[in-house]
From TrEMBL:
Keywords: Hydrolase. Pfam families: His_Phos_1. Transmembrane segments: none annotated. This is Alpha-ribazole phosphatase. It comes from Rhodocyclus tenuis (Rhodospirillum tenue). The keyword Hydrolase applies. The keyword Iron-sulfur does not apply. Its EC number is 3.1.3.73. GO terms for molecular function: alpha-ribazole phosphatase activity.
Length: 242
């Protein structure tokens, strides 16, 4: 099984502003260009659709080598997912579990205007710190979210598509490829989990806008012990920012 992690194009927001769950659009021209380029890359790697042109949803049985596309429903992700899907003759699906981490009250504020003591508290516990709750643009309550909570929901989503949760997981990966169109935070926690990276390594991974990162899940012949006879899956980073 191969998983292609795709980051949205450059968002239309001023530099230095905190945005996570904030639903900002991406540059339309850059999105269109990225969709064309990424569809070409996927097609060249055999990530084309099934013969009938249909996509596979989470609950569907694996269907040959058909590419499944699932994306964050955020406005900066949907047009890219739709563009890639249309070019490859498949259907993109959307899952709210692939939304970016919620920064609560920090959303839409300049990083320099956020209480420095809170930023320090976050730096001291990157995994479990929860930003204070705030009010979203629509007036709704917007709770903050920890990285641990982000990881839990993102991994649950990926597992629904048959992706093993970690290196050495004995879960059986589904046949066929999966493309996930999402955000940097989502991609980082997935890569950290799958590749067994320490927090200091995965939290600083540079993931460029409109690029593709490929991870291959292959049988791990070294698996043994109580699980002997069960094919474990090993995650191998194939491409970063392709």
């Amino acid at each position: 099984m191969r998983v292609f992690l795709i980051r949205h194009a450059r968002p239309l927001i001023e530099p230095g502003v905190c945005y996570g769950r904030l639903d900002v659009e991406a540059d339309a021209a850059e999105t269109q260009a990225a969709a064309r380029r990424l569809a070409g890359l996927l097609a060249a790697q055999g990530g084309a659709g099934s013969e009938d042109g249909g996509g596979c949803d989470v609950g569907d049985a694996a269907s040959g080598s058909a590419l499944r596309i699932v994306a964050s429903p955020a406005r900066r992700c949907r047009p890219l997912a739709d563009g890639v899907a249309a070019a490859l003759g498949v259907t993109a699906r959307y899952d709210e579990r692939l939304l970016e981490k919620s920064f609560g009250d920090w959303e839409g504020r300049r990083w320099n205007d956020i209480d420095a003591a809170l930023i320090d508290a976050w730096a001291a516990d990157l995994e479990h710190f929860v930003p204070p709750a705030g009010t979203g643009a629509d007036g709704d309550h917007q709770p903050g979210e920890s990285v641990a909570a982000l990881r839990a929901r993102v991994l649950a989503c990926a597992a629904g598509f048959g992706v093993p949760s970690a290196a050495g997981d004995s879960a059986t990966a589904k046949t066929g490829d999966l493309a996930i169109v999402s955000h940097a935070g989502v991609m980082r926690v997935l890569l950290g989990q799958w590749l067994g990276l320490p927090l200091a390594a995965w939290s600083t991974l540079k993931l460029d806008f409109g690029t593709l990162t490929r991870v291959d899940f292959v049988a791990d012949a070294t698996h043994g012990g109580a699980g002997a006879g069960v094919s474990a899956r090993k995650a191998v980073l194939h491409t970063l920012n392709g």
